[in-house]
Amino acid sequence: MVSIVCVVVHPSRLAREGLKAILANSRFSPVCITSSTDEVPSTIASGGEQVLILMGVREAAHLAQAMSAAKASFPDAPVVVIGDSCDRVLVTTAMDVGATTFIDENVATSTLIAKLELVAQGEPVISVVIIKRLLGQGPAQALRAAALITVHSTEPEEEDEDEARRQPQLTGREVAILNALVQGKSNKVIAIQLCITEATVKIHLKAILRKIRVQNRTQAAIWAHRTLPIASRSGNGQCASHSDQPEPSKVQPLEARAKQQVRQATIHRR
Question: What is the 3-state secondary structure (H, E, C) of the chain?
């Protein structure tokens, strides 16, 4: 497991101290808290350590400059922006200037740490609530914003117009994985739920992204939320061993009990 060097950047001293206390007992315990990235020593991380910047912002107008400074000092560091997710301008600006993901400032401590774990694993996710708020401004704008949340950006492949007009043919497994993405689940959780390996999940994800012509899992979640029928999105996607079908051993006693009730009713009428 890669060692994480967490840096907290926030204009509010109270917020900085609060984040430091919240993360103190996790592997994201901040080694530096400051109001500006310019004040973070460039030698803060030794060889083999991964810098992770937790950036708090109040206004979108100040975000571009703060992000530029962070990327200049630590070009390979993921930058997680914390702020008010109700502020669409703030969220989309964060994505536009290169944030790895956006986390609402009111999330629980456990949720914050879980999301940071995913970022550290190279699987940044964005809250379903935030996705729905982005969808509120229109699918096109939401997808544009989501396209900017990716660790490794890729150039879209040129495709034939007839091919582009075709509806993607998704397998049941791929639909189940898309459903899990809409719910904000990580690859590990999806693998456990579907009784497959994480490597298999990644293979399916790669196929899904290619089929629906998006670049990352956040785009895929938005696509699924606005495209898949509700029935397709309501399934639990669990493997056969966790099916909703009742086990025979549990069905038989219920049937026997029903028959007994019928017999008793018949005897009573007589």
Answer: CCCEEEEEECCCHHHHHHHHHHCCCCCCCCCEEECCHHHCCCCCCCCCCEEEEEEECCCHHHHHHHHHHHHHHCCCCCEEEEECCCCHHHHHHHHHCCCCEEEECCCCHHHHHHHHHHHHCCCCCCCHHHHHHHHCCCHHHHHHHHCCCCCCCCCCCCCCHHHHHCCCCCCHHHHHHHHHHHCCCCHHHHHHHHCCCHHHHHHHHHHHHHHHCCCCHHHHHHHHHHHCCHHHHCCCCCCHHHCCCCCHHHHHHHHHHHHHHHHHHHHHHC
Question: Could you tell me what percent of the chain has a pLDDT over 70?
Answer: 69
Does 18 have pLDDT greater than 50? yes
pLDDT at position 3 is 86
Give the CA angle between residues 145, 36, 144 to the nearest 5°: 5
Q: How many CB atoms lie within 10 A of CB 196?
A: 16
Residue 22: per-residue pLDDT = 93
In order of their start, the domains of the chain are 1-122 (3.40.50.2300), 168-246 (1.10.10.10)
d(Cα 161, Cα 245) in Å, to the nearest integer?
A: 43
**Angstrom distance (rounded) from CA 136 to CA 140:** 10
Tell me: pLDDT of 28 over 90.
yes
Q: How far is CA 120 from CA 53, 103, 114, 157, in A?
A: 11, 14, 10, 28
pLDDT tens-digit readout, 37-89: 888 887 886 667 889 999 998 788 888 888 888 888 888 899 999 998 888 88
Q: Does the pTM exceed 0.85?
A: no
